[in-house]
Specification:
The protein contains 15 helices and ten strands. It has 381 residues and is of the alpha/beta class. The chain has a four-stranded parallel beta sheet. Helix 2 packs across helix 10 and helix 6 crosses helix 7. The termini are far apart. It binds iron/sulfur cluster.
């Protein structure tokens, strides 16, 4: 191993383990390593930081995804989920169907319903988009008030605001009043407009995504955070993304808000994604080694600001997601019960995990497991 680089990496890891923020250049140095011994040192550093910050327990949540429609006005170049209205395979769940899914989830012990879907301009109640999204929530909440509703990305907030000519704060408050407890930090993809112009040109720009999440925090609405990695983005853009999340969280915490509850890395799955991006990326499934190194660097870069890190078993498969628990992650995610967005892109991780399977995966690491709620409070069994 080149001594100079090994020393530089060791210094960065020492500073991170000492609770200091590493710089963008230092983050880049970590991401650019290829020597297996140095990568192992980064893994160990991220694993020790995880242990220091949140201990050995691996958490999980019993939840169900409900993707209420796949009809979407946008055309993200990675998306195999969207359909035009009337196109074969398009769907729009009825209120009864949504309630049935929630009822089954509760019977299976779910504490959370995660709802996200396509951007469908015809989905309105009394001519209003916000009323439609509110009814998605109240349909479930009226029957199951204790369920946590984790729903609607910043992109959906922007869509509702545009459709109803409202500001973001009014939309977020309206969703909160209906019973939304937190927003998924999806649609972030990579927070760099050069990347967004290629992979999601119709989505909000990076600054608007940050603005909506910041406003949500200020209104007392926690969010998660994500990054879609492994397509056309550079290492610099990956670090730039992590830096924006860190700054956003520093700002929210300084104002006394809960802010971001977790970071989830979402490696790109191209198998059934539209051909242009799939061909440009040149592979169907994520490169696990790249995803693991980025997982470790995310733990180190986000440092004491975002303590919960979750791999995506949907994108990586359960084995690689379990391995990611040795690279800085402390949460294995949720049971999901059904998943459409990534499985339609050709992911091989499956669409559902039983609690037994999640606990079995965690047990292979000889680490304790613990059920949690959406906001990382422990749930006793
Ligand atoms: S990723 Fe979301 S916004 Fe983009 S096309 Fe697919 S469903 Fe629509």
């Amino acid at each position: 191993m080149p001594l100079q680089i090994a020393t530089a990496v060791a210094d960065i890891l020492d500073r991170a383990l000492d609770g200091q923020d590493i710089s963008q250049n230092e983050g880049l140095t970590l991401l650019q390593q290829t020597d297996p011994d140095i990568i192992e040192a980064i893994r160990v550093g991220a694993d020790r930081l995880r242990q220091q910050q949140v201990g050995d327990t691996v958490t999980y949540v019993i939840n169900r995804n409900i993707n209420y429609t796949n009809i979407c006005e946008q055309h993200c170049s990675f998306c195999a989920f969207r359909r035009d209205q009337g196109q074969p395979g398009s769907y729009w769940l009825s209120w009864e169907h949504i309630l049935d899914k929630a009822t089954l989830a509760v019977a299976d012990g779910a504490t959370e319903i995660c709802m996200q879907g396509g951007l469908n301009p015809t989905a309105k109640v009394d001519g209003r988009s916000l009323a439609y999204y509110q009814k998605l929530v109240t349909t479930i909440k009226d029957a199951f008030p204790a369920l946590h509703i984790h729903a609607f990305s910043p992109q959906e907030v922007q869509f509702i605001a545009r459709e109803d000519d409202l500001d973001f704060a009014t939309v977020i408050q309206g969703l909160a009043q209906a019973g939304v407890g937190s927003l998924p930090g999806t649609a972030a993809e990579v927070l760099d407009d050069r990347v967004r112009r290629v992979i999601c040109p119709e989505k909000t720009d990076a600054a608007t995504w940050v603005d909506i999440v910041t406003q949500a925090h200020q209104l007392g609405m926690p969010t998660t955070s994500t990054m879609m990695s492994g397509h056309i983005e550079t290492h610099e853009q990956q670090i730039g993304h992590l830096d924006q999340l860190r700054q956003l969280q520093q700002h929210s915490l300084a104002q006394g808000h809960r802010g971001i509850t977790e970071f989830i890395l979402l490696p790109f799955v191209g198998q059934d994604a539209p051909k242009p991006l799939r061909n440009r990326v040149g592979r169907d499934q994520p490169v696990i080694a790249d995803a693991l190194l980025l997982t470790a660097v995310a733990r180190i870069y986000l440092g004491r600001w975002i303590k919960n890190h979750q791999p995506s078993w949907v994108k990586l498969g359960l084995d690689a997601a379990t391995e990611a628990l040795r690279w800085g992650c402390n949460d294995i995610g949720g049971t999901l019960m059904e998943e459409h967005i990534t499985s339609m892109a050709g992911a091989q991780g499956g669409t559902c995990q039983s609690v037994k399977d999640l606990m079995g995966a965690i047990a292979t690491l000889n680490r304790p497991s613990q059920q949690r709620d959406t906001l990382y409070n422990s749930i006793s069994g």
